[in-house]
Write a structure and sequence with these properties.
Structural class: mainly beta
Number of strands: 11
Mean pLDDT: 83
Bound molecules: ligand 2XT
Low-confidence stretches: 1-23
Order of helices and strands: EEEEEEEEEEE
Amino acid sequence: GESGLTGVGRVNLIPGCLAQAGGSQPVSLPSSFALNMGRAGSDLALHFNPRFESHGDAHIIICNSLQAGEWGEEQREPDFPFQPGQDAKICISFDTQELTVALPGEQQLKFPNRLGLEAIEFFSVEGDFRVKSIKFK
Ligand SMILES: CCCO[C@@H]1O[C@H](CO)[C@@H](O[C@@H]2O[C@H](CO)[C@H](O)[C@H](OCc3cn(Cc4ccccc4)nn3)[C@H]2O)[C@H](O)[C@H]1NC(C)=O
């Protein structure tokens, strides 16, 4: 008969038996996350935005700056070291010339410090990223 189960993550319909809910709730696939750092929300030296699937992009890291609320020119990095649901260690260092983002798998990404910031006073995380620990050296 009609299993009638709705909203359950996965079902295993075995011929002749009721649907058995298999596994946990559906794992929602991440679309993107962003790490933002700079002087304030409207003045970012780095908007680091890995896109799993968003804005028509798939598996690409978008970096950009935001100055007085205006986006600069995007830097698009197709080397994408993130796996949905996997932990990722992201280490960001910078000087007045550039920011360096160390990524999983010894990958490194550089972005010009267009604002010439000497200090990062604003840091925010948005989207599908759960911060487990943050360490400022
Ligand atoms: C082809 C002509 C249009 O170009 C498109 O223009 C879009 C609008 O500027 C670009 O998308 C924007 O790119 C920016 C970086 O250059 C930012 O990523 C803009 O998103 C800002 C933002 C942050 N949040 C919070 C957030 C972030 C991540 C996950 C969840 C919430 N919501 N919106 C995002 O809307 C988008 O990357 C760009 N695409 C290309 C191919 O250039």
